Amino acid sequence: MSQLSQPPPQRFSAHVHGRVQGVGYRVFVDSKARALGLAGSVRNLRAGGVWVEAEGPREHLDALLTALRKGPPAARVQRVDVTWETPRGVTHFEIGSS
Residues 19, 34, 43, 44: which is the catalytic one? Predict the structure, then answer.
């Protein structure tokens, strides 16, 4: 009996631009990432915007990116700059400080 192998995890970092501070964006991202079983973090940037790092299965990362581009109701996302990186093996998702 052969086992189906899981594809290797992938990772991205994303800088989210727009009105994304003070509108519940980090809590929104944390909730979405945890629901998708992803690891990583989300934090506000001092210069504005939000920084997200996430890793896990590509299809789950793509779903999170879709959510990042929309955001919670009070957010106004202008753009999301994404960089794909080598996974680091993180095991949980957290809200970080700026």
Answer: 44
Span 37-96, pLDDT tens digits: 999 999 999 999 999 999 999 999 999 999 999 999 999 999 999 999 999 999 999 999
Cα–Cα dist 36/10, whole Å:
14
**Is 44 marked active-site?**
yes
Q: Is 26 a known active-site residue?
A: yes
Over its C-alpha atoms, the chain yields an Rg (Å, rounded) of 14
Domains located in the chain, CATH noted: 19-86 (3.30.70.100)
Full-model pTM = 0.92
